[in-house]
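SsrA-binding protein structure dump, as promised
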Amino acid sequence: MGNSKKKKTSGKFIAENRRARFDFAIDETFEAGIMLHGTEVKSLRNGEANIAESYASYENGEMWLINAHVPEYLEANKFNHEPRRRRKLLLHQKEIVKLANGVDRQGMTIVPLKLYFNDRGRAKLEIALAKGKNVADKRETAKKRDWNREKSRILKENN
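structure tokens r here:
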């Protein structure tokens, strides 16, 4: 589960896809940079973004973030960006190959998990190679979560 190199997301948090961990079984995570326009960076610094409905796609040897919503920056008049434009993800070539193989051979999906600024002020996206869960798996996840919550409540009452 995850990379051997654990990267900390200690920078400024922007957006999270909370539904992804419920709908998908996360196999491996990657940290990707994003190619952004200036007004997009300003909008992200305001903490406005939505990656819940977005996904990543492999096309012509490159990774693209599709359907992520970064609202227009209000002070930017005519030089603004398109809110739902495709954004190129910056990854090492071997990471791109690994993601592409996972999608092509194993039928997995590339799901964005978190969008944040790292310590150096660069916008980063945490993406995951994931497999979709069926209804029974989702029910099992909900049962485990409820049981852990109940268990912690019981332990807290006894102590």
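Residues 7 and 23 are 24 Å apart (CA to CA).
lmk if u need the other ones
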